[in-house]
Amino acid sequence: MPRRITLRRSPIHGNGVFAVTDIPKGTELVEYRGRRMTHAQIDRKYANVPDNGHTFLFTLNDKYVLDANVGGNIARWINHSCKPNCQAVIEEDEDGDPRKDRVLIETIRPLRAGDELTYDYGIDVGERITPRLKQLWACRCGAPRCIGTMLKPKRSRRR
After folding, report:
1. Residues 30-82: pLDDT tens digits?
2. Parallel, antiparallel, or unpaired: how do β-strands 118-119 and 64-67 relate?
3. Beta carbons within 8 Å of 129's beta carbon, 6+ residues apart
4. 153 belongs to a structural domain
């Protein structure tokens, strides 16, 4: 199978993943890989690492997180965008084993050769979103309707 994606410097942030050829909507491109760890293991491992708005962690399910710092692949370099052209899809194991769940990156619209692959990270920090957190997790996608952060927006209460 010919290579469809490649890694190179990104105008969004650091490294990025780009289409080598035109790719149709609905194409499964790559599995997000990394060491499978429990949430408690991740909490212990990164307890003393200061938040810097940069992570290769992907929450897989209620029990496991993928740490692409170890055993990660090209998918860890796909940048966030408020107007993404891909999505991350959790594929649950048929037998219900959460250790076997996977994350697949697929296109949500057609890509042209040279387009940078992006998806909405929708990061949930599990706490009140403050201006400091918004700054820490600032978005650099440049989309016309960029919300300015990679954090998942909180739903506002209806009165």
Report:
1. 999 999 999 999 989 888 776 766 679 999 999 999 999 999 999 999 999 99
2. unpaired
3. 149, 151, 154
4. no
71: containing domain: 5-136
**Separation of alpha carbons 90 and 157, rounded Å:** 28
Residue 71, pLDDT score: 94
pLDDT, mean over the chain: 90
| SS3 state at 99 | helix
Question: What is the Cα–Cα distance from 116 to 114, expressed in whole angstroms?
Answer: 6
Residue with tokens 């990679």: 150
| Longest CA pairwise span in the chain (Å) | 55
Q: What is the torsion angle, in degrees rounded to the nearest 10, for the CA atoms of residue 32, residue 20, residue 25 and residue 12?
A: 70
Q: Is residue 77 included in any domain, yes or no? A: yes
Please state, in angstroms and rounded to a whole number, the distance separating the CA atoms of residues 84 and 16: 13
d(CA 105, CA 143): 20
Instruction: Give the separation between CA 138 and CA 140, rounded to whole angstroms.
Output: 7
- If one counts the domains in the chain, the total is 1
Question: Is 55 contained in some domain?
Answer: yes
pTM for this model (two decimals)? 0.89
CATH number at 40 reads 2.170.270.10
